[in-house]
Amino acid sequence: MPEFKAPLRDIRFVRDELLDYPAHYRGLPGGEEATPDVVDAILEEGARFCEEVIAPLNRVGDLEGCSWSESGVKTPSGFKEAYRRYVEGGWPSLAHAVEHGGQGLPESLGVAVTEMVGEANWAWGMYPGLAQGAMNTLFAHGTEEQKAAYLTRLVSGEWTGTMCLTEPHCGTDLGLLRTRAEPQADGSYRVSGTKIFISAGEHDLAENIVHIVLARLPDAPPGTKGISLFIVPKFLPAAGGGLGARNRVSCGSIEHKMGIHGNATCVMNFDGATGFLIGPPHKGLNCMFTFMNTARLGTALQGLAHAEVAFQGAIRYARERLQMRALSGPKAPELPADPIIVHPDVRRMLLTIKAFAEGNRALLYFSAKQVDIARYSQDATERAAADLLLGFLTPIAKAFMTETGFEAASLGLQVYGGHGYIREWGMEQNLRDSRIAMLYEGTTGVQALDLLGRKVLMTQGESLKAFTKIVHKFCKAHAEDEGLKAFVEPLARLNQEWGELTLKIGMQAMQDREEVGAAAVDYLMYSGYACLAYFWADMARVAQERLAAGSGEAAFYRAKLQTARFYFARILPRTRGHVEAMLAGAGPLMELAAEDFDLGY
Asked: Which UniProt keywords apply (predicted)?
């Protein structure tokens, strides 16, 4: 396995130099505690914990997996001890409210720690990661009594949480779910049904697991308008704040998966379990979107994590592996062959991985900044603007970052050649672990429909304009900068085309609604490449300024500029294919009748 090193230099570049997080925190209510010294100390200690404690367990988790018995689920060797140290270090409470036992630091700072955890060991990181969504849901929609009973224990890390949506017959279309909740005389509910694919649904890391469950009340209208949301704990809270009776919820089995073996993906059976309503009856899906949006950004981070791991492994191997001579003549004549990093095709793969890892990091931390503003700003207009922008970026981040994260993981394996296919190098695990990210929390196709249909067309393009205005202002401000001309001019053309394409698809959709579904994935990928073009142009601006100022880290900033040039020259042209596909319309997809697909088989 490649040794993991937390990418602190690039995290700091994006947060401090590109997005000016220090100024962001100074202007954020409660952000005054997140001084540069405090942030640096947290990042340094988080990096040490990830590198020394949980990264060594990554391969252990893959080889051992989780084991199920009727008494529960046992996690891989070392996972429980690592979680104990994680809780003792106060990491679960980092970005949560002081009144619930948290440290009161901005949510975006927690994202930085979560990135390093995910890169070190994604399977382990899912156990505390799922609890974040449960905490956010309770914070936003729970009663004061529910917060007192559950939130404080979740914030401390003593308890963990899950989200329970999917059923055997029902995945994305939650209107089909059958889990029932019967009201009881004491105000609780008896929840009955089966949920599948529940990450971290059962384990031995924490003493209690708080399930956030979608179910139907007896008088529920059909479809998504009849869904309510419930807290269903593994153990009911005791009056004094400890553990009470064991609830009637159990893990029926765990899935045998392609990857992420160290995290238990469970079938959860609710057999008349005691549950408690969160939010209004029949409005559960609205409340659950708090959890789902947290999970979508968390899954976007997974795409970044696998790209970073792929780059770290591939760059080290490419510098050491000897193979052939460079076409232009030997580059290491003292050796029997040249390191493969001299070959153009290996450079293509390494730069593609680097461009996606670093570009997606900028997209993620920009989105995290909007989360801070939408949650904490005291200016209602500012909160609404951040929320609109975040709604637009979330499906792009989730789908584009996981698609390109998988591509990066695949290229990381490819750099190794045949060795990449062998377990001991860790690249095949990284590829297997990355594949699920395009599926859960809404597939790429579902995210694309959300982006184009709900977020863009249903707002008459207002959410798109929230981002394209930022790009337009950047291009206008730097139109006369000769050093940025190679980035600004194509970015400005792309930004204009983005709006024109949206209008064309909208006009086509007025004639045939299938046009939205036909264009959606290409539109999302185009949008992702356009977003990264803006961030790479802005990163080139910062790098150019630092080099002009005579920075002592010239090599770092030169690499930023060169990677930006690579992105615009070799990656951004992919948008041309997506444009052609979008404008081809629904006809080529829908002409073949469903019954004719299998003729001759």
From this structure: FAD, Flavoprotein, Oxidoreductase
The residues, ordered by sequence, that sit 6+ positions from 556 with a Cβ below 8 Å of its Cβ are 9, 13
Per-residue tokens: 385: 């603007």
- What are the residue numbers of the active site? 441
CA gap 107, 529 in Å, rounded: 26
The model's pTM: 0.97
d(CA 402, CA 360): 10
346 Cβ contact list (under 8 Å, min separation 6): 318, 340, 415
Is the distance from CB of 9 to CB of 43 less than 8 angstroms?
Answer: no
Rounded Cα distance between 247 and 234, Å, is 5
Q: Which CATH superfamily is domain 288-447 in?
A: Butyryl-CoA Dehydrogenase, subunit A, domain 3 (1.20.140.10)
For residue 159, which phi and psi values (nearest 5 degrees)? -120, 155
Q: Tokens 């609109």 — which residue?
A: 388
CB burial class (10 A; 0-12, 13-18, 19+) of residue 548? exposed
Q: Is the dihedral of CA 369, 370, 375, 378 positive or negative?
A: positive
For residue 67, the model assigns a pLDDT of 97
Question: What angle do the packed helices 107-120 and 122-141 form, to 10 degrees?
Answer: 160
Rounded Cα gap, residues 294 and 143, in angstroms: 20
d(CA 162, CA 150): 13
With bands split at pLDDT 50, 70 and 90, how would you rate the model's confidence at 98?
very high
* 426 secondary structure, DSSP code: S
34 neighbors 385 (Cβ within 8 angstroms): no
Q: Are 213 and 269 in contact (CB under 8 A)?
A: no
Query: Is the confidence at residue 29, as pLDDT, over 90?
Result: no
Q: How far apart are the first and last CA of the chain?
A: 44
Element (DSSP H or E) covering residue 366: helix 344-376
- State how far the Cα of 391 lies from the Cα of 497, in Å rounded to an integer: 21
Q: In percent, how much of the chain has pLDDT > 90?
A: 91
